Amino acid sequence: MTKKILACIVTFNSGELVVDSVRCIKNQTIEVDVLIIDNNSSTYYQDFLKNSIKEVHFIFSDQNKGYTGGNNIAIDYARKYDYDYLFLINPDVDIGINVFESLISTIDSEPGIGIVGCKEVDFYTGKVRSIGGGPYNFWVSRTCWLSEREVPDPSCSSLRVEFCQGALVLLSRNILRENIRLSDEIFAYVDEVDFGIKVQRSGYSIVVNPSVSFGHKIHNPPFRPIEGYLLQRNRVFIVRKYGMLRHKITFFLYMTLIEIPVKCIFRLIQGRHEYAFACFVGFLDGIVGKMGMGSLIYFSKKQGVTR
User: Fold this and answer.
1) Whole-number Å distance between alpha carbons of 75 and 63
2) Is the pLDDT of residue 301 over 80?
């Protein structure tokens, strides 16, 4: 019996990047259904996608639910139509023709695997950006990404990790069946850590296949206020939700007395006033639990909210 595979792209005001990603999906060595979830883009981009991409399913959300909320729509869709596998994919990735087949082989190799990821490579430079996540540092709420040197066998097809890069991941049928979801309140950024903890606490493992890679077309300029806000806020969220009391005390003292003052002063000296303000507001919103879009609308008026 043929297993059903769904690939989902969540997009907001993206055009040609989505078209290119869909082309990569349709060129895979296995048959895949494609779902595009539009996070309330402008009419121009919605019309562009509908006119440029054929033989895909569209869901047009009436509000921007972010990366997490958009992918939760995909999980609901996959459960409703009884899919066996769900690929969650950024709109700005380049995928080789056998990537899906290789990742499905990995997830089928062990019954307890919940998520499979692969090596993320900068599309333009070929530099490895991430392979998988090591233990999360709750003391300062920082991710720890494995380097190539820390992978014992780069040719192996299954390496156990704590979380994997969210630009291209495969969810197993077990994850869909048990309705393990991303946290809507995170919106975007640091979501892979939260989801990884949920999956492992549900009894499933997370692995990456370091012999498989995808190209990530990172095109955002550095020090975007949107990213500064979300990263700062969601780091607080992770510690509040999962950290032990000693982590919380140390983290909030560190942030209040060291990181936030130093970061804001340094960025102000650099002339990055908007970024410094975004980090400060993100920290405050994280403390008071102002999640979802939160104060993001203030910064997104100038930049647009993307993954």
Assistant:
1) 18
2) no
Residue pair 110/29 in contact (Cβ under 8 Å)? The answer is no
Taking 60 as the threshold, does the pLDDT of residue 306 lie above it?
Answer: no
- 198 vs 21, 67, 114, 193, 238, CA distance in Å? 28, 17, 11, 9, 12
Q: Where are the domains of the chain?
A: 5-216, 225-303
List, for residues 172-199, the tens digit of each pLDDT value: 999 999 999 999 999 999 999 999 999 9
Closest CA to 225 of 215, 217, 235, 233: 233
In the structure encoding, which two tokens stand for residue 93, read together?
A: 């990735």
Name the burial class of residue 292, with classes exposed (0-12), middle (13-18) and buried (19+) by CB atoms within 10 angstroms of its CB: middle
Tokens of 227: 């990213």
Q: What is the pTM of this model?
A: 0.94
| C-alpha to C-alpha distance for 110 and 174, rounded to whole angstroms | 12
Which tokens hold the place of 85? Answer: 């596998």
Assess contact for 85 and 138: CB atoms under 8 A.
no
Q: End-to-end distance of the chain based on CA atoms, in angstroms?
A: 36
May I ask the CATH class of domain 5-216? alpha beta
Where residue 151 falls (left for φ over 0; alpha for ψ -120 to 50; beta otherwise) is: beta
How many angstroms separate the CA atoms of 14 and 90, rounded?
11
- Six-digit token pair at 114? 């919940």
Identify the sign of the CA torsion 71, 220, 292, 233. positive
